[in-house]
Structures are given as C-alpha cells and as structure tokens.
Amino acid sequence: MGFGGISIWQLLIVLAIIVLLFGTKKLRGIGSDLGSAIKGFRNSVKDDETNKEEPEQLNKPSEREQTDTEKTKEREKN
C-alpha cells in the first residue's frame, strides 16, 4: 500500500495518463516555471532576512540623496 490506500501501480497509471494528456514538453515547462517561482521565493525570503539583520543601512541616506541635498543648499545660497 502507498499513500492513503493508493498503490504504486495506481500512481504510475495516473502519471502515465497525465504524461499522455499534457505531453513531456508542457510538463517540463511547468516544472521549470515552478522551480523558478520557488527559487524567486527563496531569494526574496533571504533578502528579507538580511534586511532585518541590517536595519541601519536603511536609515542612512544614499550618495545620490546626499548630493541632492548639497545641490539644494547651494541653490538656496545663490
């Protein structure tokens, strides 16, 4: 017996029917799309964890913001 009373032979028959219905190319495409979606999810979770560890960097102004403020100060002087 397999999962929940389904034997391995029944699972193989269902798998064969799915391959016949969709074809191997479409199943391969679905698999690669699913894999890239999982990879993107993992990367976003990693990015979120690194952002939580380094909150100081979020509060610091970037170089562009610093130059913009310097330019505004120069304009106000003139």
Task: Itemize the secondary structure elements and their pairings.
Blueprint: H1 8-22, H2 24-53, H3 56-59, H4 63-77
Description of the molecule:
The chain is an all-alpha fold and 78 residues long. The chain has one domain. The chain contains four helices and no strands. The mean pLDDT is 80.
Order of helix and strand elements from N to C terminus:
HHHH
So how many helices? 4
Number of domains: 1
Q: Would you tell me the overall average pLDDT? A: 80
Q: Uncertain regions: pLDDT < 50 for 5+ in a row?
A: none
Brief write-up:
This protein is mainly α and 78 residues long. The protein is built from 4 helices and no strands.
Summary keywords:
78 residues; mainly alpha; 4 helices; 0% strand; elongated
